[in-house]
UniProtKB/TrEMBL annotation:
The keyword Transcription regulation does not apply. It comes from Gordonia desulfuricans. GO terms for biological process: daunorubicin transport; doxorubicin transport; response to antibiotic; transmembrane transport. This is ATP-binding cassette domain-containing protein. Belongs to the ABC transporter superfamily. Drug exporter-1 (DrugE1) (TC 3.A.1.105) family. One of its GO terms (molecular function) is ATP binding. Pfam families: ABC_tran. Residues 327-351 are annotated as: Disordered. Keywords: Antibiotic resistance, ATP-binding, Cell membrane, Membrane, Nucleotide-binding, Translocase, Transport.
Length: 351
Protein backbone atom coordinates (compact mmCIF):
# COMPACT_ATOMS: atom_id res chain seq x y z
CA UNK A 1 0.00 0.00 0.00
CA UNK A 2 2.47 2.67 -1.04
CA UNK A 3 1.94 5.19 -3.82
CA UNK A 4 -1.66 6.26 -4.15
CA UNK A 5 -2.81 6.79 -7.71
CA UNK A 6 -4.95 9.82 -8.35
CA UNK A 7 -5.97 9.95 -4.73
CA UNK A 8 -5.00 12.63 -2.30
CA UNK A 9 -5.88 12.63 1.32
CA UNK A 10 -4.12 15.90 2.01
CA UNK A 11 -7.13 17.88 0.85
CA UNK A 12 -9.07 17.13 4.00
CA UNK A 13 -8.23 18.32 7.48
CA UNK A 14 -7.10 15.79 10.01
CA UNK A 15 -10.29 16.17 12.01
CA UNK A 16 -12.66 15.92 9.06
CA UNK A 17 -14.55 12.67 9.66
CA UNK A 18 -13.65 10.07 7.03
CA UNK A 19 -17.29 9.06 6.81
CA UNK A 20 -20.39 10.94 7.84
CA UNK A 21 -24.00 9.88 7.47
CA UNK A 22 -26.53 12.66 7.91
CA UNK A 23 -30.11 11.55 8.48
CA UNK A 24 -30.08 9.03 5.64
CA UNK A 25 -33.47 7.76 4.54
CA UNK A 26 -34.31 5.23 1.84
CA UNK A 27 -37.78 4.11 0.94
CA UNK A 28 -38.78 1.50 -1.61
CA UNK A 29 -42.39 2.29 -2.45
CA UNK A 30 -44.26 2.20 0.84
CA UNK A 31 -41.46 0.44 2.64
CA UNK A 32 -38.86 2.38 4.60
CA UNK A 33 -35.62 0.38 4.52
CA UNK A 34 -33.46 3.08 6.15
CA UNK A 35 -35.14 5.50 8.47
CA UNK A 36 -32.97 8.46 9.47
CA UNK A 37 -29.49 7.09 10.10
CA UNK A 38 -26.69 9.42 11.26
CA UNK A 39 -23.18 8.61 12.42
CA UNK A 40 -19.65 9.72 11.89
CA UNK A 41 -16.38 7.80 11.60
CA UNK A 42 -13.02 9.43 12.49
CA UNK A 43 -10.12 8.92 10.08
CA UNK A 44 -8.15 5.74 10.66
CA UNK A 45 -10.83 4.03 12.69
CA UNK A 46 -13.21 1.14 12.10
CA UNK A 47 -16.96 1.36 12.32
CA UNK A 48 -18.92 -1.86 12.51
CA UNK A 49 -22.45 -1.65 11.17
CA UNK A 50 -24.09 -4.56 12.90
CA UNK A 51 -27.54 -5.92 12.25
CA UNK A 52 -29.52 -8.98 11.23
CA UNK A 53 -30.74 -9.88 7.72
CA UNK A 54 -32.78 -7.10 6.21
CA UNK A 55 -31.75 -4.48 8.80
CA UNK A 56 -30.74 -2.06 6.05
CA UNK A 57 -26.95 -2.42 6.08
CA UNK A 58 -26.44 -2.90 2.35
CA UNK A 59 -28.90 -0.13 1.57
CA UNK A 60 -26.87 2.27 3.73
CA UNK A 61 -23.60 1.22 2.10
CA UNK A 62 -25.07 1.59 -1.39
CA UNK A 63 -26.18 5.13 -0.63
CA UNK A 64 -22.84 6.09 0.90
CA UNK A 65 -20.91 4.73 -2.07
CA UNK A 66 -23.09 6.57 -4.63
CA UNK A 67 -24.66 3.38 -6.01
CA UNK A 68 -28.12 4.43 -4.90
CA UNK A 69 -29.60 7.84 -4.24
CA UNK A 70 -30.95 8.56 -0.76
CA UNK A 71 -34.63 9.42 -0.52
CA UNK A 72 -33.51 12.14 1.86
CA UNK A 73 -30.47 13.03 3.92
CA UNK A 74 -26.92 12.76 2.69
CA UNK A 75 -23.44 11.46 3.46
CA UNK A 76 -19.90 12.78 3.20
CA UNK A 77 -16.86 10.67 2.38
CA UNK A 78 -13.47 12.25 3.08
CA UNK A 79 -15.34 15.54 3.31
CA UNK A 80 -17.04 15.18 -0.09
CA UNK A 81 -20.82 15.16 -0.31
CA UNK A 82 -22.34 12.16 -2.12
CA UNK A 83 -24.93 14.44 -3.73
CA UNK A 84 -22.67 17.33 -4.75
CA UNK A 85 -19.40 15.52 -5.47
CA UNK A 86 -20.08 11.87 -6.35
CA UNK A 87 -16.94 11.74 -8.52
CA UNK A 88 -14.71 12.84 -5.65
CA UNK A 89 -16.46 10.43 -3.33
CA UNK A 90 -15.69 7.55 -5.70
CA UNK A 91 -12.06 8.69 -5.99
CA UNK A 92 -11.63 8.45 -2.22
CA UNK A 93 -13.27 5.13 -1.52
CA UNK A 94 -13.17 1.44 -2.29
CA UNK A 95 -16.05 -1.00 -1.98
CA UNK A 96 -16.26 -4.72 -1.59
CA UNK A 97 -19.90 -5.55 -2.09
CA UNK A 98 -21.86 -8.38 -0.58
CA UNK A 99 -21.73 -10.43 -3.78
CA UNK A 100 -18.45 -11.22 -5.52
CA UNK A 101 -17.92 -9.06 -8.58
CA UNK A 102 -14.81 -10.62 -10.08
CA UNK A 103 -14.87 -12.09 -13.56
CA UNK A 104 -15.22 -15.90 -13.56
CA UNK A 105 -13.48 -16.52 -16.87
CA UNK A 106 -10.35 -14.56 -16.00
CA UNK A 107 -7.63 -15.67 -13.62
CA UNK A 108 -7.12 -13.89 -10.32
CA UNK A 109 -4.11 -12.03 -11.68
CA UNK A 110 -6.00 -11.03 -14.85
CA UNK A 111 -8.82 -9.65 -12.75
CA UNK A 112 -6.39 -7.46 -10.85
CA UNK A 113 -4.72 -6.30 -14.07
CA UNK A 114 -8.03 -5.49 -15.69
CA UNK A 115 -9.40 -3.42 -12.81
CA UNK A 116 -6.00 -1.80 -12.21
CA UNK A 117 -5.98 -0.81 -15.88
CA UNK A 118 -9.34 0.86 -15.42
CA UNK A 119 -7.92 2.82 -12.50
CA UNK A 120 -5.09 3.96 -14.80
CA UNK A 121 -2.33 2.34 -12.74
CA UNK A 122 0.82 1.98 -14.87
CA UNK A 123 1.73 -1.53 -16.06
CA UNK A 124 4.83 -2.09 -14.04
CA UNK A 125 3.40 -0.65 -10.86
CA UNK A 126 0.27 -2.70 -11.46
CA UNK A 127 2.22 -5.95 -11.88
CA UNK A 128 4.06 -5.31 -8.62
CA UNK A 129 0.96 -4.34 -6.76
CA UNK A 130 -1.00 -7.34 -8.07
CA UNK A 131 1.74 -9.72 -6.96
CA UNK A 132 1.86 -8.13 -3.54
CA UNK A 133 -1.92 -8.32 -3.10
CA UNK A 134 -2.06 -11.93 -4.28
CA UNK A 135 0.60 -12.78 -1.74
CA UNK A 136 -1.07 -10.80 1.02
CA UNK A 137 -4.29 -12.73 0.43
CA UNK A 138 -2.59 -16.13 0.05
CA UNK A 139 -3.56 -16.33 -3.61
CA UNK A 140 -0.12 -16.48 -5.19
CA UNK A 141 -0.56 -20.09 -6.29
CA UNK A 142 -4.13 -19.55 -7.43
CA UNK A 143 -3.27 -16.31 -9.22
CA UNK A 144 -2.95 -17.98 -12.61
CA UNK A 145 -6.08 -20.10 -12.31
CA UNK A 146 -9.49 -19.12 -13.58
CA UNK A 147 -11.73 -17.68 -10.86
CA UNK A 148 -14.46 -20.21 -11.65
CA UNK A 149 -12.25 -22.83 -10.00
CA UNK A 150 -11.96 -20.78 -6.77
CA UNK A 151 -13.66 -21.60 -3.48
CA UNK A 152 -15.99 -19.05 -1.87
CA UNK A 153 -13.25 -17.92 0.47
CA UNK A 154 -10.78 -17.41 -2.37
CA UNK A 155 -13.32 -15.32 -4.26
CA UNK A 156 -13.91 -13.11 -1.22
CA UNK A 157 -10.18 -12.59 -0.84
CA UNK A 158 -9.71 -11.76 -4.50
CA UNK A 159 -12.66 -9.38 -4.32
CA UNK A 160 -11.05 -7.59 -1.42
CA UNK A 161 -7.67 -7.51 -3.16
CA UNK A 162 -9.31 -5.88 -6.18
CA UNK A 163 -10.94 -3.18 -4.05
CA UNK A 164 -7.54 -2.42 -2.49
CA UNK A 165 -5.74 -1.85 -5.79
CA UNK A 166 -6.21 1.87 -5.73
CA UNK A 167 -5.26 2.07 -2.04
CA UNK A 168 -8.36 4.10 -1.16
CA UNK A 169 -8.29 6.01 2.15
CA UNK A 170 -11.86 4.93 2.93
CA UNK A 171 -12.97 1.36 2.45
CA UNK A 172 -16.50 -0.04 2.62
CA UNK A 173 -16.84 -3.77 3.16
CA UNK A 174 -20.27 -5.33 3.02
CA UNK A 175 -20.15 -8.56 5.03
CA UNK A 176 -16.55 -9.31 4.07
CA UNK A 177 -16.34 -12.66 5.82
CA UNK A 178 -19.78 -14.13 5.27
CA UNK A 179 -19.35 -17.68 4.05
CA UNK A 180 -15.70 -17.95 5.06
CA UNK A 181 -14.38 -20.71 7.27
CA UNK A 182 -12.92 -19.62 10.63
CA UNK A 183 -9.33 -19.76 9.41
CA UNK A 184 -9.97 -17.62 6.32
CA UNK A 185 -11.96 -15.25 8.48
CA UNK A 186 -9.08 -14.83 10.90
CA UNK A 187 -6.65 -14.26 8.03
CA UNK A 188 -8.90 -11.60 6.58
CA UNK A 189 -9.20 -9.89 9.96
CA UNK A 190 -5.40 -9.71 10.12
CA UNK A 191 -5.24 -8.11 6.70
CA UNK A 192 -7.90 -5.59 7.69
CA UNK A 193 -6.04 -4.73 10.90
CA UNK A 194 -2.90 -4.08 8.85
CA UNK A 195 -4.82 -1.75 6.58
CA UNK A 196 -6.17 0.20 9.51
CA UNK A 197 -2.69 0.43 11.03
CA UNK A 198 -1.66 1.98 7.72
CA UNK A 199 -4.29 4.71 8.16
CA UNK A 200 -7.24 3.35 6.16
CA UNK A 201 -10.71 4.07 7.52
CA UNK A 202 -13.03 1.08 7.41
CA UNK A 203 -16.76 0.74 7.49
CA UNK A 204 -17.75 -2.89 7.61
CA UNK A 205 -21.17 -4.41 7.84
CA UNK A 206 -21.55 -7.68 9.58
CA UNK A 207 -24.02 -10.05 11.13
CA UNK A 208 -21.21 -11.57 13.13
CA UNK A 209 -21.16 -10.07 16.56
CA UNK A 210 -17.72 -11.43 17.17
CA UNK A 211 -16.41 -9.75 14.05
CA UNK A 212 -17.56 -6.32 15.17
CA UNK A 213 -16.08 -7.01 18.58
CA UNK A 214 -12.73 -8.03 17.05
CA UNK A 215 -12.32 -5.23 14.56
CA UNK A 216 -14.46 -2.22 15.33
CA UNK A 217 -13.57 0.82 17.42
CA UNK A 218 -17.20 1.81 17.33
CA UNK A 219 -20.32 -0.18 16.65
CA UNK A 220 -23.63 1.03 15.28
CA UNK A 221 -26.34 -1.54 15.85
CA UNK A 222 -29.14 -1.27 13.36
CA UNK A 223 -32.45 -3.03 13.26
CA UNK A 224 -35.31 -2.38 10.84
CA UNK A 225 -33.64 0.66 9.34
CA UNK A 226 -32.92 2.57 12.54
CA UNK A 227 -30.00 2.82 14.92
CA UNK A 228 -30.84 1.08 18.16
CA UNK A 229 -27.45 1.45 19.82
CA UNK A 230 -24.10 3.13 19.22
CA UNK A 231 -20.94 2.76 21.24
CA UNK A 232 -17.66 0.95 21.70
CA UNK A 233 -17.83 -2.84 21.98
CA UNK A 234 -17.21 -2.49 25.71
CA UNK A 235 -19.93 0.12 26.19
CA UNK A 236 -22.43 -2.05 24.39
CA UNK A 237 -21.52 -5.04 26.47
CA UNK A 238 -21.85 -3.04 29.65
CA UNK A 239 -25.24 -1.88 28.46
CA UNK A 240 -26.34 -5.51 28.24
CA UNK A 241 -25.75 -5.99 31.94
CA UNK A 242 -23.10 -6.65 34.48
CA UNK A 243 -20.59 -9.44 34.43
CA UNK A 244 -21.21 -12.70 36.20
CA UNK A 245 -19.22 -15.40 37.86
CA UNK A 246 -19.68 -18.84 36.34
CA UNK A 247 -18.74 -21.87 38.42
CA UNK A 248 -18.48 -25.27 36.75
CA UNK A 249 -18.81 -27.96 39.41
CA UNK A 250 -17.17 -31.37 39.17
CA UNK A 251 -20.27 -33.54 39.47
CA UNK A 252 -24.01 -33.22 39.12
CA UNK A 253 -24.31 -33.84 42.86
CA UNK A 254 -22.28 -30.66 43.49
CA UNK A 255 -24.88 -28.44 41.81
CA UNK A 256 -27.32 -28.21 44.70
CA UNK A 257 -24.64 -27.54 47.37
CA UNK A 258 -23.17 -24.85 45.09
CA UNK A 259 -26.57 -23.21 44.74
CA UNK A 260 -27.07 -23.34 48.52
CA UNK A 261 -23.65 -21.89 49.21
CA UNK A 262 -24.21 -18.86 46.98
CA UNK A 263 -27.77 -18.34 48.23
CA UNK A 264 -26.51 -18.39 51.81
CA UNK A 265 -24.37 -15.36 50.98
CA UNK A 266 -27.40 -13.65 49.49
CA UNK A 267 -26.32 -14.14 45.88
CA UNK A 268 -28.88 -14.54 43.13
CA UNK A 269 -28.12 -17.90 41.46
CA UNK A 270 -28.90 -19.43 38.11
CA UNK A 271 -28.33 -23.19 37.78
CA UNK A 272 -27.75 -24.85 34.42
CA UNK A 273 -27.67 -28.60 34.89
CA UNK A 274 -26.77 -29.33 31.28
CA UNK A 275 -23.46 -27.46 31.50
CA UNK A 276 -23.02 -28.24 35.22
CA UNK A 277 -22.67 -24.55 36.01
CA UNK A 278 -24.03 -22.09 38.52
CA UNK A 279 -23.98 -18.44 37.55
CA UNK A 280 -24.25 -15.45 39.82
CA UNK A 281 -24.05 -11.69 39.19
CA UNK A 282 -20.71 -10.05 39.97
CA UNK A 283 -19.34 -6.60 39.51
CA UNK A 284 -15.73 -7.49 38.94
CA UNK A 285 -12.59 -9.23 40.06
CA UNK A 286 -13.12 -8.61 43.77
CA UNK A 287 -16.38 -10.57 43.61
CA UNK A 288 -14.60 -13.30 41.70
CA UNK A 289 -11.95 -13.76 44.37
CA UNK A 290 -14.53 -13.57 47.15
CA UNK A 291 -16.68 -16.27 45.57
CA UNK A 292 -13.60 -18.39 44.81
CA UNK A 293 -12.78 -18.17 48.53
CA UNK A 294 -16.20 -19.50 49.57
CA UNK A 295 -15.83 -22.49 47.28
CA UNK A 296 -12.29 -23.08 48.45
CA UNK A 297 -13.49 -23.46 52.02
CA UNK A 298 -16.37 -25.75 51.03
CA UNK A 299 -16.32 -29.45 50.09
CA UNK A 300 -17.78 -28.69 46.67
CA UNK A 301 -15.79 -29.98 43.71
CA UNK A 302 -15.04 -27.19 41.25
CA UNK A 303 -13.65 -27.73 37.76
CA UNK A 304 -13.63 -24.13 36.68
CA UNK A 305 -14.48 -20.72 38.01
CA UNK A 306 -14.37 -17.54 35.98
CA UNK A 307 -15.72 -14.11 35.21
CA UNK A 308 -18.00 -13.93 32.18
CA UNK A 309 -18.86 -10.71 30.41
CA UNK A 310 -21.91 -10.48 28.18
CA UNK A 311 -21.24 -11.24 24.53
CA UNK A 312 -22.41 -8.96 21.79
CA UNK A 313 -25.06 -11.58 21.17
CA UNK A 314 -26.42 -10.89 24.65
CA UNK A 315 -26.27 -7.20 23.77
CA UNK A 316 -28.38 -7.74 20.72
CA UNK A 317 -30.88 -9.75 22.66
CA UNK A 318 -31.19 -7.15 25.40
CA UNK A 319 -31.57 -4.34 22.85
CA UNK A 320 -34.02 -5.92 20.47
CA UNK A 321 -35.65 -8.74 22.37
CA UNK A 322 -34.50 -11.17 19.69
CA UNK A 323 -31.22 -12.77 18.80
CA UNK A 324 -29.26 -11.74 15.77
CA UNK A 325 -28.65 -14.31 13.06
CA UNK A 326 -26.81 -17.27 14.55
CA UNK A 327 -23.06 -17.05 14.12
CA UNK A 328 -22.88 -20.68 13.24
CA UNK A 329 -25.15 -20.46 10.22
CA UNK A 330 -23.61 -19.72 6.88
CA UNK A 331 -25.71 -16.90 5.52
CA UNK A 332 -23.98 -16.62 2.20
CA UNK A 333 -26.98 -18.11 0.48
CA UNK A 334 -29.38 -15.57 1.95
CA UNK A 335 -30.15 -13.02 -0.70
CA UNK A 336 -31.31 -9.60 0.34
CA UNK A 337 -34.28 -9.46 -2.00
CA UNK A 338 -36.30 -11.95 -0.05
CA UNK A 339 -34.74 -11.24 3.31
CA UNK A 340 -37.23 -8.87 4.83
CA UNK A 341 -37.04 -8.87 8.61
CA UNK A 342 -39.19 -11.71 9.86
CA UNK A 343 -41.09 -9.48 12.25
CA UNK A 344 -41.04 -6.37 10.10
CA UNK A 345 -44.21 -5.27 8.45
CA UNK A 346 -44.79 -7.05 5.19
CA UNK A 347 -46.07 -4.04 3.32
CA UNK A 348 -42.67 -3.68 1.60
CA UNK A 349 -42.95 -7.08 -0.03
CA UNK A 350 -45.37 -5.91 -2.66
CA UNK A 351 -43.44 -2.72 -3.41
N1 LIG B 1 -34.32 -2.59 -4.36
C1 LIG B 1 -35.14 -2.88 -3.36
N2 LIG B 1 -36.49 -2.87 -3.50
C2 LIG B 1 -37.31 -3.16 -2.47
N3 LIG B 1 -36.91 -3.48 -1.24
C3 LIG B 1 -35.59 -3.51 -1.02
C4 LIG B 1 -34.63 -3.24 -2.06
N4 LIG B 1 -33.39 -3.35 -1.53
C5 LIG B 1 -33.56 -3.70 -0.26
N5 LIG B 1 -34.87 -3.80 0.06
C6 LIG B 1 -35.42 -4.14 1.38
O1 LIG B 1 -34.87 -3.26 2.33
C7 LIG B 1 -34.58 -3.94 3.55
C8 LIG B 1 -33.11 -3.77 3.90
O2 LIG B 1 -32.34 -4.51 2.97
P1 LIG B 1 -30.74 -4.55 3.03
O3 LIG B 1 -30.30 -5.36 1.86
O4 LIG B 1 -30.23 -3.19 3.18
O5 LIG B 1 -30.53 -5.36 4.39
P2 LIG B 1 -29.17 -5.92 4.99
O6 LIG B 1 -29.08 -5.40 6.37
O7 LIG B 1 -28.04 -5.64 4.08
O8 LIG B 1 -29.47 -7.47 5.05
P3 LIG B 1 -28.47 -8.75 4.80
O9 LIG B 1 -27.78 -8.98 6.10
O10 LIG B 1 -29.40 -9.86 4.46
O11 LIG B 1 -27.54 -8.41 3.69
C9 LIG B 1 -35.00 -5.39 3.33
O12 LIG B 1 -36.30 -5.55 3.87
C10 LIG B 1 -35.00 -5.52 1.83
O13 LIG B 1 -35.93 -6.51 1.42
MG1 LIG C 1 -26.73 -6.80 3.03
Amino acid sequence: MTAQPAVETGAIGSDTPAIEAVDLVKTFGEFTAVDGVSFSVPQGSVLGLLGPNGAGKTTIVRMMTTLSEPTSGTARIAGFDIRDDPEEVRRHMGLTGQAATVDEILTGRENLRMIGGLYGIRRRELAERSDRLLEQFSLTDAGNKQVKSYSGGMRRRLDLAVSLLAAPPVLFLDEPTTGLDPRSRNELWDVLRELVDGGTTLLLTTQYLEEADQLADDIVVIDRGTIIAHGTPLQLKQQAGAASVVVTVSADSDLEPARELLSRYGQEVFVDAASRTVTTPASGLSDLTRIAGWFDESQIGVDDLGLARPSLDDVFLSLTGHRAQADTADNSGADTSGAAHPTASTKGESA
